[in-house]
Structure formats: C-alpha cells, structure tokens
Amino acid sequence: SSGINAEYGENEQNLFANPAADPRKMRRIIAEDPEWSLATVPRLIDICVKHIVNNFADNPLLDELKPKHKEKVLEALATDLPLKITAPLVSDEGYWKRCCKSRWTVCDIDQYGNSWKRMFFERNMGDLIENFVPESTDIAEISETLELSKDFIKRLRIRQLLPQIKDVSTGVPQGEDEISDQGSDTGTDDSLDHFDFGPIINKLPNLVELSVTYGVRNCGMNFEWSLFEFTQKDCSLLAKAVKACRHLQVLRLQRCQIEDEKARLIISHLLDHPGLKVLDLSHNRIGDKTGRAVGKLLSVNKILEEVNLCDNNIRAEGASAIAFSLKKNHTLRTLNLKLNRVGDEGGRNICQALMQTKTLLHIDLSSNGLGEHVAANLAEVLSHNQSLEHIVISCNKLGVAGGRVLQEGLENNKVLKTFDLRLTEISQQSEHSIMNVIKSNKERNNPALTV
Questions:
Q1: Which residues, in sequence order, are bridge partners of residue 362?
Q2: Burial letters for 90-105: b for 16+ Cβ neighbours within 10 Å, e otherwise?
Q3: Which is nearest to 238 in space by CA: 304, 298, 310, 158?
Q4: For residue range 205-252, what is the model confidence (pLDDT) as tens digits?
Q5: How far apart are CA 426 and CA 200, in angstroms?
Q6: DSSP H or E run through 125
Q7: Quick check: helix, strand or coil at residue 415?
Q8: Cα-flanking dihedrals φ and ψ of residue 166, to 5°?
Q9: d(Cα 52, Cα 255) in Å, to the nearest integer?
C-alpha cells in the first residue's frame, strides 16, 4: 500500500504541473460537420452569380448587371450555350475566346481581324457548310445559324464540299431519277452536286472573301474521282451567286479541277463586278481559253489588283492574251503565272507588256520553260521599268549568258527589292552581283536596314 500511495502522489504532482494532462479538467467540442467553417460560407453575390449562370439558358440576364458582376457571369458561362442566346447578347471577347479554344486546337486570331467573336462565327458556319450533304442534311440548322451570324461573317473559307450520297442500287444521287430532265443544263446524270452558296451569300451583308475547294478531305480508302468533281450545275450556281454578291472583293477557287469552259463561265459573270479585287484560280486545269478570258477581264475591270493562275496549263496563247491586256490595265498589282507552260513566246510577250505597265509590283514566272531569249527581254524590262519590286523567275533555264544579260540590265535599276533566280543555271558571279544590287536597293528604300 505504501508503494501505491507513493505512485499516486507522483501522479498528482504531474497533473498539478500540467493541468492539460488531466482529462477531468479538459472540455472537448465535437462538431457535427468537421469541415464546417465560417470562412467558407459563400457571399450572397456569389450565390446570385451562380444562380444566373446555371439558369442563363432559360433566363439570360446580363445587361442589367453591374460591370463587375457582369464580368463574373461571363467568366463562368458555359461555352456550349445555344447561339440564339449568346450571339445577340454576349459581345465580350473573353467569352468567345473560350468558345474558340474549347472547339478548335489552332486559333490564329490575326486572320480574323483580331476578333474572337468573328472567328467563332466564321469557322462555325464553315464547319456547317463543309459537313452539309445535299438532299440528306437539313438546311434548317444552317438557315438558323445564318440569321444569328450574318453580321459577323466577313470571310468564308470552305476546305471541302461533300457531294450527294449515291444510291447503291441505282448508282445515281439520292432524290434524282435515273434519267434527268435537266441533264443538258446540269451535266451528266452521274454528276454529284454540292452545296448551293446562292441562298446564304445574299444574306451576308459584310462578306468580302469567299474561298472554296470542291473536294473531300480525308476520304481515305473511299477515294473516287467523283468526290472531287466540280459539276456544270455547281459552276452555274456559284457564278450566279458571286455575281449577285456585289460587295465581294476576293474570290478563291483552288484545287477544284476547274476546266476552261467552267472557268470562262465564272469569269463572264465577273466582267461587270463592281468590287472584285482578287481572283485566285490556282491549282486547276485551265488553259489558253481561260487565259483569253482573264485578258478580257483585265481589259474591262478597273479595280482588279491580284490574279493568281498558278499551277495550270496556260501556254503561249493564253499568256499573250494576258500580256496584251496588261498593257492597258492600270490597277493590277500582282500577277502569278507560276507552274504553267508559257514558254519563250509567251515570256517575250509578257516582258513587252512589262515595258509599258506602271502599276504592277509583283510577277511570278517560275517554272514556265523560259530560256536565254526571255532573259534578254527581261533585262530590258529591268533597265526601263520603275514599278516592279518583286520578280520570281526561278526554275527556268536562263543559262550563264542569260545571267550576264540580267546583271547588265539591273545596273541602273533602283526599285527592285527581290529577284528570285534559284535553279536558273546562271553563274555564281552573276548571281552574286545581282544580289548586291538588290541589297543596295533595299537599303536605299529602307534606311533602317543600314543601321
């Protein structure tokens, strides 16, 4: 008992020294919610903002809010809300930026006038058109979206157009009889028609650029030439739509398998167009007939600034027709005839036209089968023309003698800034001398380069 008493006395001394060690003197509070804290109670403003965001589709409330509260709502709004709600109500660029980045991986705002809202509406309309299947897809969605987007679309870039779906049993497009009463107007019975731009172009008051490729992307093992066919009906409808769009400034029809007859039909509808500044028919199958049509267009059009006929089949006749009209044209700034077959005869005629034109700034004659004789004509141009700033004549067999002639012709030229002579078989000495003259011209026109 003496030992027990001694131990008890020792414990009493410890409890006296440290009162917290005595459970009898401690009060413990056990909360029902261990995570509860006064600091986490949301403010009334935050609750209201959350309620507005969650019910925005049914009751869109934005303009009535104070700026700081409006900003919070816009930051929390979902990017998949219906366009009929957000299009007329939301102008905040931050919201449309989130919409774009949530939908597309690559977003280059510089191509859309630094406007995220414009980017969203242009690319959204482009996606709808690219995935539209004639006679199968309901046009109602495009029509509804068009009404909401028309004020924001300035450019349409269509990278593919899907044809009608063929009926496997008959081999003709669905919705058509095997024998068409309109065969003479719209092409053969097997031709597959695409999206008609007429109804939408008329409803886009701000559209200035239309870029279309008739073909199918990523078709894989389902490849058929008919998927890349630009039919006569397509051509007729597009030509009428472009003619009706009087405010259109840029028309690009690249990689569409366009032939002479169809290209001439399109150009005939552009002869009296009041706004067209750029015509791009590159990477097609056009030849001399289209060259003559372009020549006529250059003769009558007073505002055209750029013509791109790259990678076609234009020969001397077509190039000569363009050159003849170029002498009388006073608005064209850029002419691209790269990857054609103009040859020496066509090249000489173009050089004669360059002796008279005073407005052309850029010309590309690369890969056209030009020889030493054209180099002599071009040298004369270099010594007299005071407007050309950029010349591309690469991948032509100008030869060593042609290089010396060009070097002599460039001695008194003070305006040429770029002269592409790659793969022309000229000597290194001539190329070095020519590049020194080009460098001097650049420094003369831009003194900042000498600093």
A1: 334, 390
A2: bebeebbbbbbeeeee
A3: 158
A4: 999 999 999 999 988 888 888 889 899 999 999 999 999 999 999 999
A5: 52
A6: helix 116-130
A7: coil
A8: -75, 140
A9: 49
